[in-house]
Write a structure and sequence with these properties.
The protein contains three helices and two strands. The chain is mostly helical. It has two domains: about 45 residues; about 55 residues, Translation Initiation Factor IF3, CATH 3.30.110. Strands 1-2 form a two-stranded parallel ribbon.
């Protein structure tokens, strides 16, 4: 009868070890999933804003658009500036104005 109890307890220990190991693996997976979820929450999404300029833009419009570009950059967004050009215009004056602002 003592052999039987010993065998039963060994079997129980082996099963308990497997159960404990499975539980430990499950806890590791849960901790990893929780860490990934926290990292995803802390990520900052950077938006790309677009600003369109034409060749014959008025000074006050240019100042307004430059102010908006500064605001976007201060918020941490990226800004793409599109300059519409016609074949008869060259963008030298607008380029200089953008650099000054």
């Amino acid at each position: 009868m003592s052999d039987r109890i010993g065998n039963d307890s060994k079997t129980f220990i082996k099963e308990g070890g497997a159960v404990a190991k499975a539980k430990e693996e499950r806890l590791k997976r849960e901790a990893l999933a929780k860490a990934e979820k926290e990292a995803k929450k802390k990520q900052k999404v950077v938006e790309v804003k677009g600003m369109q300029l034409s060749m014959n833009i008025a000074d006050n419009d240019m100042q307004f658009k430059a102010k908006n570009v500064r605001k976007f950059l201060a918020n941490g967004d990226k800004v793409k500036v599109y300059i519409e050009s016609n074949a008869r215009h060259f963008g030298i004056a607008i380029d200089e104005t953008i650099i000054e602002q």
